[in-house]
């Protein structure tokens, strides 16, 4: 495709992309280069927690870009310290290291756990992860992830990530040896198809890790920052993990992530961890603006309420079309189609006129919904009306 004088084949081919170029976004809506508008239920992949181009992020970027972009990670800067303080005040963690992505935060979590294992557990280094989990695309995180096939694409693999089954505590227990230093999971498996870890399972994992003196690590790159209706997904089960990672929502659309841990686990010494952009004020200033908005009790209450509404309406849709129900937490939800028609629905939805609908199908028989956390009931209804139309067309 030619886009004015530019050629899309100048880019590496990493995923099939539709023949459109997005040029603007506002709230739940995107606009392409032909002026067509799309109701966006991807939101940069659960990233734009306040929708496209929210005023608070625009203002934070403008204000900070006039003050200081990057003094280097060898110095403190005000937004970095302020955001770390806010995060520790609002979570069970004491220390924060900022990153540029989720995969980088998870890499840091694994390094921290292995270091802690060297100091406290005779060099134990294995971290139990789960089938169908997703932790990012660096070499080590592709090994940590439970995506089928990912263990061989870029062999040799980074070792030390045995896989258990989600919501099956016996499968975890079986893998614990004197080499085990921790267990890492997503409170809701996102890319795996929106599969929540049961509250009892999270509690059993906390008890099991305490019993063996090993670490519980939550990857909240997708579930953190209000997505589930709690500020952090671990709060759904009333447990307190040892390490947490954040990204996606915390930047509201800009590259920002974080690695958080409790004081007892904070064992990095100078030289162990770092990076040129880590904690840069331009991004951490955005994080402050996002957390100030998302952390409000009224904001989280609205996420819960809209999540419950979406859940109820998806259930109704499922009943009406003989589908297999829905699942999820807060505003991270999936509709179980019962047939491999996900890709077909995504395609039809995007091509609808006068405006399109952007949906995601993480599995052939599943649709995933990850709207902005400030989505309105009207925007939920509008999506459901369009989806109903598509299902009626397909099921005819
Ligand atoms: C998206 C995601 C990642 C990877 O984050 P990147 O910023 O793309 O590196 C890791 N873990 C989970 C649970 C995610 O959803």
From TrEMBL:
Keyword Oxidoreductase belongs to the record: no
GO molecular function: diaminobutyrate-2-oxoglutarate transaminase activity; identical protein binding; N2-acetyl-L-ornithine:2-oxoglutarate 5-aminotransferase activity; pyridoxal phosphate binding
Keyword vocabulary terms for this entry: Amino-acid biosynthesis, Aminotransferase, Arginine biosynthesis, Cytoplasm, Pyridoxal phosphate, Transferase
Cofactor requirements of the protein: pyridoxal 5'-phosphate
An example Gene Ontology biological process: L-arginine biosynthetic process
Any single GO CC term annotated in Swiss-Prot or TrEMBL for this entry: cytoplasm
InterPro entries in UniProt: AcOrn/SuccOrn_fam, Aminotrans_3, Aminotrans_3_PPA_site, Class-III_PLP-dep_AT, PyrdxlP-dep_Trfase, PyrdxlP-dep_Trfase_major, PyrdxlP-dep_Trfase_small
Protein family membership: Belongs to the class-III pyridoxal-phosphate-dependent aminotransferase family. ArgD subfamily.
PANTHER family with a match to the protein in the record: ACETYLORNITHINE AMINOTRANSFERASE, MITOCHONDRIAL, AMINOTRANSFERASE CLASS III
Leftover remarks: May also have succinyldiaminopimelate aminotransferase activity, thus carrying out the corresponding step in lysine biosynthesis.
Protein name per Swiss-Prot or TrEMBL: Acetylornithine aminotransferase
């Amino acid at each position: 495709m030619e886009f004015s004088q530019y050629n899309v084949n100048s880019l590496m081919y990493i995923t099939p992309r539709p023949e459109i170029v997005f040029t603007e976004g506002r709230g739940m809506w995107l606009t392409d280069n032909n002026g067509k508008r799309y109701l966006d239920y991807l939101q940069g992949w659960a990233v734009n927690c306040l929708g496209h181009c929210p005023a608070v992020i625009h203002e934070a970027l403008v204000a900070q870009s006039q003050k200081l972009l990057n003094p280097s990670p060898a110095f403190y800067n005000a937004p970095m310290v302020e955001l770390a303080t806010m995060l520790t005040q609002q979570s069970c963690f004491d220390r924060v290291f900022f990153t540029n992505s989720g995969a980088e935060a998870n890499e840091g979590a694994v390094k921290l756990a292995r270091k802690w294992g060297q100091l406290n557990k005779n060099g134990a280094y294995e971290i139990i992860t789960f089938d169908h989990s997703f932790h990012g695309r660096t070499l080590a995180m592709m090994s940590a992830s439970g995506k089928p096939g990912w263990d061989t694409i870029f062999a040799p693999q980074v070792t030390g990530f045995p896989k258990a089954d989600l919501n099956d505590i016996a499968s975890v227990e079986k893998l614990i040896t004197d080499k085990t230093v921790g267990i890492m999971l997503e409170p809701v498996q996102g890319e795996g198809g929106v599969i929540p870890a049961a509250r009892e399972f999270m509690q059993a994992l906390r008890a099991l890790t305490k019993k063996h003196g090993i670490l519980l690590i939550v990857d909240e790159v997708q579930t953190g920052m209000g997505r589930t209706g709690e500020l952090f997904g671990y709060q759904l089960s009333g447990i307190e993990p040892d390490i947490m990672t954040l990204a996606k929502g915390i930047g509201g659309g800009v590259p920002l992530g974080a690695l958080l841990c409790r004081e007892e686990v904070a064992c990095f010494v100078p030289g162990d961890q770092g990076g040129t952009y880590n904690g840069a004020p331009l991004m951490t200033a955005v994080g402050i603006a996002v957390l100030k908005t998302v952390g409000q009790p009224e904001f989280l209450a609205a996420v819960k309420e809209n999540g419950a509404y979406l859940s109820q309406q998806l259930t109704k849709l499922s009943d009406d079309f003989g589908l297999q129900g829905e699942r999820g937490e807060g505003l991270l939800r999936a509709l179980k189609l019962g047939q491999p028609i996900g890709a077909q629905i995504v395609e039809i939805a995007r091509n609808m006129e006068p405006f399109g609908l952007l949906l995601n199908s993480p599995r052939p028989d599943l649709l995933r919904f990850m709207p902005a956390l400030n989505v309105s009931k009207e925007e939920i209804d509008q999506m459901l009306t369009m989806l109903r139309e598509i299902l009626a067309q397909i099921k005819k």
